[in-house]
Amino acid sequence: MSNRYVVKKIVGALLTLFAVVIFNFFLFRIVDRDPLTKYRGRSKLSLEQRETMIRRMGLSGSKWDQFVAYIKSTLQLDFGRSFDSTRPVLREITDRLPATLILVGVSTVLTICIGLYIGAKAGWARGSRFDRVSTSTTMVLYATPEFFFGMLLLAIVAGRTGWFPTGGLRDVGTNNGFVASLLDRTHHLVLPSLTLTLGYLGSYSLIMRTSMLDTLGEDYLTTARAKGLKESDVMTHHAVPNALLPSVSAIAISFGFVIGGAITTETVFSYPGLGLATADAIRNTDLPMLQALFLVASAAVIFFNLVADLTYGLLDPRIRHSI
Amino acid sequence: MSAVLEVRDLHITYASSSGLVPAVRGVDLEIAPGETLGLAGESGCGKSTLAMALLRLVPPSTQITGSIKLAGQDILTMKPGQLRAARWAQASVVFQGAQHVLNPVRRIGRQIDEAIEAHGSASVSRAGELLDLVGLGARRGDDYPHELSGGQKQRSLIAMALACDPLLLIADEPTTALDVMVQAQILQLLDNIKRERGLSMLFITHDLSVLSHTADRVAVMYAGRIIEVGAGDALLRNSLHPYSKALTASFPIIGDPSSRHQPRGLAGDPPDPNNLPSGCPFHPRCTVAIDECQSVDVQLRHAADDEERSVACVLVGKS
Amino acid sequence: MNDLVPSTSPRDMTWARRKQALARVWRELRHDRAGFVSLVVLLGFGLVALSAPLIADRSLLLAAAGRNNPDLASPSAQFLLGTDDIGRDVLAQLVWGSRVSLFIGIFATVVAVVIGSVVGLVAGYVKGKVATVLLAIDEFFLVVPFLPLAIVLAVILGRSPVTLAIVIGITSWAGSARLVRAQVLTLSERAYVERARALGAGTWQIIFRHVLPGVTPLIIANATLIVPGAILTESTLSFLGFGDRLSPSWGKLLDGAQSSGSITLNAWWYYLPPGLCIIAVVLAFTLFGRALERIFDPRLAGR
Q: Around C29, how many Cα atoms within 13 Å sit in the side-chain half-sphere?
């Protein structure tokens, strides 16, 4: 991969991130003229406390002064204090980030692997039994809100059987060693990550199936067959590597949906990550938290898109060698 | 000596959205060891379908009847495993390099070696040696297709075709997308390789002029049938079927200055395979057609004055 | 105008052509099993939504309506789908919920399609700086994760159903703008647009008279595919606390079911019906949209 390609993609990602930061300011300071009215405890504030709060939130001075103050504090990762807990927003976020990273990470890896596998197999054997069964299943998965999955799983395998915990990150009061704690956390992770995986499996496998169908008519598959290759080798060595390329970008775009899915999934399972924090912030109209959570979610998607662009560059020699 | 390739009464009908399309309608062919047969015709006449059918590389919904014997074994009755073993080892294809016949995300050397591996001898890479042989140089095995020029791609496809030491090369328009200089080099290369290794070759082209130095015999196809076949030079210099005449007249014969001054193109388009004209399918475009041509579809038959020549035309060989 | 006399005014010819095109779509749809079945399902849901006042009185949605009923009662002759955590009839909420869910889904789609089509048409037809800026905005909306964006917008703009629809519309137009633009780019190369330009037609006249009719089928098929996404987004936002409990959508019902603990209490009649309704409608819209796509663009047949 040429350095220019990498640099170009990184600069593009940074520009997009910067656009999000500006957009955030626009939303919270211009569309919403007086964010403080959304603070529920405002009636109890003394005039002095109110002044302090306005200053602390960077709401004093002209819009330009506010903008400069906002950019400065954002660069220092200072997002103010939560309306709800009154702790610094940054602290709230760093506390909850690891739980979400694990949940989204595990689910994304599972979704990509299973989704691509099903999609590739279905597209390759288009019209077969496997294709018909898997495509109709994935269509239903696609049509189901992931939190409804979560509720069903909760009702069946947690409520009825008690095989899995109904929520939380770990059992309270269990602190007997590393292995036990790891097992306990994994036990708590199973249902949420299964929910998120099932919720987005559908779109990933449909994406892969479509790009597989697009490669089916390609001449290089005929070449490979002419050489006497087995059908399975034609598929894995020739069709799949080419079908992956368009899927990579489409999957990167769908990653934004997975982030959204984490919000509802964590809510269903009371899984204390950033998603649950978002749901709480909605119910409490906690603007400073929402503002920062939106930035974090956007940054995550932009980063994932960057990774996808760079992966694309690695997978496609035409980009790897160009420029 | 028995023929390397023997095709008998081959019919190929493929399914399209508008119904069944008869692409090849009764073709007989044979190629002797070391012989090159040129197969010429306009695009859509069925020659590429025929070439692909020789290794059963047509869509599964395609109906093929007749027989295709490669080194005595009928390709059409083989089980999948036998077919895979026969592909590339008995006959290989020199594809046209212009389209995506090479996998864009796989190195050239890998694409050559995988053919050898598919036939069980995985031990040594022969890609380098083969690329040397076609004048590309072994280093090019590490390249991806987009890094090669059109001529280089064509050379790598020739190297690929030689990977399993086949008896027969099926060259499917191997020079079509190339400029004249490169075209000559590729033709020369194919000719040398064929001679050195004693290979048979089926050379498919829409351009009869490339056959003049390559082909021992030439067959001309029209609307899914062979309408004239004969010894190469004789047919190219003195074709008998009005269609072959029109094709040979559209290129200058080297060494015959007068031929350059009378280019005669061919009017009209090839017929729609779904809706062939009655009688001789060529009659609507034929400049010498007579009334009989609208009703009588003449089969290939020996021309009176040339032992090796067969022609499918009312006006020729009537004795 | 006399119907019996064949008229040849351009307007009538256009109408005749449109009627023919519609007839063709209908004919092909009748032979597309998935498309036809999903259309029937959609019409069924539409009928229920429209006749909600006839099926259940609106007052049943009020908090007071459940005061004298048992809470979380299982289905019975009186309450076919049982009651919720404050004793209200679940079936009544489900019926009225179809109104809210379909209304928001369709209204949001209209917003998205209008923005997407205008941006796509302009970005495709007008070259230069305008197009660059529009494409940058489009790119931005494609990259920014749309649920967090919708959440932030809904918090700032308000929580009413109409606002939710607008918010969902604002977050879902970027894809259709791309599609429309790509189609416009190919169309504007076509001879009839060039001819109109040569005859001196203005930019806007060309866009609305000549380019828009060409992209309309695509816009319709695309809109049918935006609706299911919008309905899912609506249910998600309602589940997260937006929307109105006294005029609940299906997503809001699920929110109530979740927060009232109906799952651990095994009150399946509370959470199962709204979830299944969402799946049915989303699936039907998706299949119907794909059928339309196949009809308008035969290259996609067999997908």
A: 21
Residue B76 near residue B67, CB atoms below 8 Å: yes
Cα first-last separation, chain C:
45
Nearest 5°: the CA angle B206, B210, B211 is: 90
CA distance B236 to B234: 6
Task: Yes or no: say if C161 and C249 are a contact pair by the CB < 8 Å rule.
Answer: yes
pLDDT tens track, chain B, 319 positions: 588 999 999 999 988 877 888 999 999 999 999 999 999 988 888 898 999 999 999 888 899 999 999 988 999 999 999 999 999 999 999 988 766 899 999 999 999 999 999 987 666 778 999 999 999 988 999 999 999 988 999 999 999 999 999 999 999 988 887 888 888 899 999 999 999 999 999 999 988 888 888 899 999 999 999 999 988 888 888 888 889 888 887 665 555 555 444 445 677 778 888 888 888 889 888 888 888 888 888 888 887 777 788 989 888 865 4
* Smallest Cα distance from A260 to chain C, Å: 5
Q: Which residues of A touch C157 (CB under 8 A)?
A: 31
Pick the CATH number of B5-90+166-243 from 3.40.1210.10, 3.60.20.10, 3.40.50.300, 3.30.1460.30: 3.40.50.300
Cβ–Cβ contact C232 with A under 8 A:
yes
The Cα of A224 is separated from the nearest Cα of chain C by a number of Å equal to: 24
User: What residues of B are in contact with residue A233 (Cβ under 8 Å)?
Assistant: 114, 118
User: Do the Cβ atoms of C172 and A257 come closer than 8 Å?
Assistant: no
Q: Identify the chains in contact with B, defined as 3+ C-beta pairs within 8 A.
A: A
Complex ipTM, two decimals? 0.88
| CATH classification number, C31-66+84-300, choose in 3.40.50.1970, 1.10.760.10, 1.10.3720.10, 3.90.76.10 | 1.10.3720.10
Residues near A6 by beta carbon (within 8 Å), at least 6 away in sequence: A310, A313
Which of 1.10.8.60, 1.10.10.10, 1.10.3720.10, 3.40.190.10 would CATH assign to domain A93-315?
Answer: 1.10.3720.10
Our separate counts of H helices and E strands in chain A read: 13, 0
CA B302 to the chain's CA centroid: 23
